[in-house]
Write a structure and sequence with these properties.
With about 180 residues, this protein is α/β, with parallel strands linked by helices. About 30% of the residues lie in helices and about 5% in strands. Helix 3 (about 70-75) links the parallel strand 1 (about 60-65) and strand 2 (about 80-85). The termini are far apart.
């Protein structure tokens, strides 16, 4: 018997078939990924779009957009958010890593392993708020204990009427990579 998994609509957040908690195909039990997501979120104080905007303005929170390029090209970005695709996140946000992002840890206060860097409030943004919960948990495991995520992701930010930069044409994305 061949089992075909349900397709994900965006390949990043699992907005269809993932995170649904419906237990389809598992005898009514939540899937393992649903349990993992629930566990990750149990340690987070997830922020609404308005709370994330306030945290950035009042606390200097760093918004980190982990959506892949196709979604940014389609929907645009949050002005001032650091673009770090999910597969590079830990290397770019680990204060002890030589590949850490200079945008996240400026030279004035971002020396390698600077203890104050671990106090940085980080709000991870994905498309709909699934992948960001797992990413925020991972950042917490690296010691960024103020890391959390945006409930509802970029889509909730846009729906709240908060600023969005227009999409960037392919090839114009100048986000940092591990090679730079």
């Amino acid at each position: 018997m061949t089992v075909t998994p349900k397709p994900l609509t965006d390949g990043n957040d699992g907005s269809t078939g993932a995170g649904s908690g419906d237990g389809a195909g598992t005898g009514g039990l939540p899937s393992r990924v649903d349990a993992l997501l629930e566990s990750a979120r149990s340690d987070l104080t997830r922020l609404t779009a308005q709370d994330a905007a306030r945290a950035r303005h009042e606390e200097g929170a760093l918004l980190v957009d982990i959506r892949y390029a196709a979604l940014r090209e389609r929907d645009g970005t949050i002005p001032g958010a650091l673009i770090v695709e999910r597969n590079e996140l830990e290397w770019r946000l680990d204060p002890t890593c030589p590949h850490r992002s200079p945008e996240a840890f400026p030279p004035a206060g971002g020396a390698l392993g600077d203890p104050e860097a671990f106090e940085l409030p980080v709000v991870v943004v994905c498309n709909e708020g699934y992948a960001s919960s797992l990413a925020a948990r991972s950042l917490r495991e690296l010691g960024l204990h103020r890391a959390t995520d945006l409930d509802g992701g970029f889509q909730s930010w846009r729906a709240a009427g908060l600023p969005v930069s227009p999409p960037v044409a392919p090839g114009e994305d100048a986000r940092p990579t591990l090679e730079t």
